[in-house]
Amino acid sequence: MDDEIRKAAYKRWENEGHPEGQHERHWREAEEEVRSKSTGVPRTWSSDHGGGVNPPSEGPALSEPSSANEPGSLKPGELASENK
What is the pTM of this model? Predict the structure, then answer.
């Protein structure tokens, strides 16, 4: 596995234009990449935290329709992506 990490770290170093003093970061990032490939589960996912999803504490039940989900209920400029 160290050989795979070494190759991935070297590739990161080359892709960034051979910066000096970044070898520890390149190694750490490559190590995470290789391990996540071998386990099939990203290292940032945590089953003990519900995968980062928290159910709403209050509000309408999931089965109730929301007017915000109905077609045509949003007006131009209401989406975050349109507020750039």
Answer: 0.45
